[in-house]
Amino acid sequence: MIRGLQLSIYIFALLVYSSHHLHGQEVSAKNAVKWSMSGRIQLQHAYSGDIASNADETNNGFRIRRGRLQVNGVLNDYISTQFQIEVRDNSPRLKDAEGKLKLFNDFFLRLGQFKVPVWREELRSSGKLLLVERSPAAEFLADMLLSARHIGVEFGGQVHEGVELAFNYSNGAGEGGRETEGTSKSIDVNNGKLFTGRVNVAAGEVIELGLSAAANQLGNKIGSADTSGIVYAVAPDFGIYLKSGVDIEGGVAFGGISKDLIKTANDQKFMVGDITGRLRIKLAEPNAALAGMDGVELAGGISYVEPNTKIDKDETMYFRFGPAFDFGKHTKIQINGEVAAPTADGADTFVIVRSQATINF
Question: What is the pTM of this model?
């Protein structure tokens, strides 16, 4: 992996060096009629007030949260592609690798690795999140392999003005989760698949309503042993986007883990929810003394995660809030305080302060 990363750096350096000496010659893609490149750099600092300075774990420091490079290509009027790689904490990985075919004018077929159509916040770009990180509710669904990136195919499109549908069929094993013949089985790599679907309705100019559903076949049948079962969820969500600069997004997800998967008498039910809001204040003009800062944001959110509805006091409330500073459309600095308050008797509340600079280029 390290050698591969070094090779990528060498190739990138060679391209930069060569482009400097090409005297302005245009670079053209071999097969595409249009080709573009973009990227994202996110530097994050996090501090935990619950880890002592003399503990065996660090309590503050910097990390490269995301370092991404994305290439988009248009082959013709009907076929487009997207390829995105990421280096996080010096570990490279593939994020998106997809082809998109236009069908019947208003519909499409996507093939490859990309996000399945579940949970409004998850579908928002990481460079445009209302707060530094996605909510714990979104992370719970991703950990349950009901959202985020998977490998598969998706059909969708606009069935009526303001009404969009999407149906996805994928491995359900997450990023890079190969399930072709001969792959060793595990709880998530198997012959089962993830089925997801979403409908999003624009109710007027400022309100959107969405409904997602997901069912993932996990576990395995190996010989006479059967550990297979289903993890499932139904998740309604909404978005309010006012011209005054106020954005509000929220949703809940109700679901469960099949009793056959966890070998219990009944399914384990869970519930998560989140609501996050942001106020954007545009300055009269960019401040040249502050790197062209032209806007200030105030954002906050509340999340609720209950892993098992039949167990009392196993849920956790999360509170996140803080300001952000805009430097044009593509650069932002965010500062968030995060408080997690478990309801279990004797459980401690913990606090984390995250600061993050995002540069989309």
Answer: 0.90
